[in-house]
Amino acid sequence: MRLLATTALVALAALPAFANDWRADYKVVRFGILSGENESDRVARYTPFEQYLEKTLGVDVEIFTAGNYDGVIQALAADQIEFAFLGSSAYAAAYTETEGGVVPLLTSQQNDGSTGYFSVVVTRCDSPYKTLDDLKGKVLAFADPDSTSGYQVPLYNLVQQGYDPASFFSATPFSGSHEAGVQGVVNGQFDAATTYINNETNGIPQRMEAKGMIEPGQVCSIWQSPEITSGPFTARANLPQGLIDAMKAAVKAAPEAAPEAHKEMTGGEKSTAKGYIEVDHARYQWTIDMRDWLKAQRRS
Fold it and tell me: Nearest to residue 179, comparing CAs of 215, 152, 204, 198?
């Protein structure tokens, strides 16, 4: 369900002075990453970044993964991890679960200055499904119940556009992750699946092509959502402020201080991530409102 990876403690000399007070109580700092892709690839992408954080913070840093989004959310709520890279909906879930016990710190910014991404519905390019109307009575796979782009946003927008998933599609299973959904489309397990892209050159399908998991041109997008606010790098609110400040500064500086590590964790050679901007809770209130709408729909 999870993997905790540790490396050696780095000399304290490189630490910022303002971070010194929290280190006695936090000899290990853990950050969670969501299950957008298979575990081994997730860990491999974030390991150089983990090593950069260890060198910068001067304490052991561990990567936490779980089999689904809720595993990371529950780890935050149970004080098992200190930080997490979350999607917008996962942040909303964590905020609700902890009754406001998490704080958004930063969100990613692309080279074009944008700070958002898009949910898409993909099908095999050689299939007869070219529009949503073509999927009537077919199988659409969502990614994960706590995925912004893989479930919450497409469900909300499809309903608003007149496509009630419960009656329009023959089945709407959860694939478990974005990659599993796309792979299921390629393999014929699903007729279509939801995932995300940042732009035409960077996203889950493009990343899978770069890794050799699927062939270029196998999947095509037939629907795209309005722009989604990029999810935040999030801290537990009950952490020492010195630790929060030190981690926030390290992550924000990563694109210049550790460019190769930053590029690897944000998509490798296809990465279009420029850096980070600071965010606050108000930016994500819409996701909480959307989740409340979804809960109301389920109750009714």
Answer: 204
Place of tokens 């899978």: 208
Q: What would the pLDDT profile of 213-264 be if each residue is shown by its tens digit?
A: 999 999 999 999 988 989 999 999 999 999 999 999 999 999 999 999 999 9
Taking the C-alpha atoms of residue 163 and residue 148, their distance in angstroms, rounded to an integer, is 18
DSSP 23-83: TTT-SEEEEEE--SS-HHHHHHHHHHHHHHHHHHHSSEEEEEE-SSHHHHHHHHHTTS-SE
Model pTM?
0.77
Structure tokens at 184: 């299921």
DSSP H or E run through 182: helix 178-187
Q: Running DSSP on this structure, what letter comes out for residue 132? A: G
Output the CA angle 232-35-211, nearest 5 degrees.
Answer: 105
- Express as a percent the part of the chain with pLDDT over 90: 76
pLDDT value, residue 15: 40
Six-digit token pair at 13? 């000399």
Distance CA 153, CA 157 (A): 6
pLDDT digits (tens, 9 = 90+) for 94-117: 999 999 999 999 999 999 898 999
What are 64's strand-pairing partners? 32
**What is the length of the chain?**
300
What are the backbone dihedrals phi and psi of residue 225, each rounded to the nearest 5 degrees, phi first?
-80, 170
Query: Residue 287's closest CA among 82, 102, 42, 39?
Result: 102
The SS3 assignment for 276 reads strand
Are 61 and 30 a contacting pair, CB within 8 Å?
A: yes
Q: What are the chain's domains?
A: 12-113+230-299 (3.40.190.10), 116-228 (3.40.190.10)
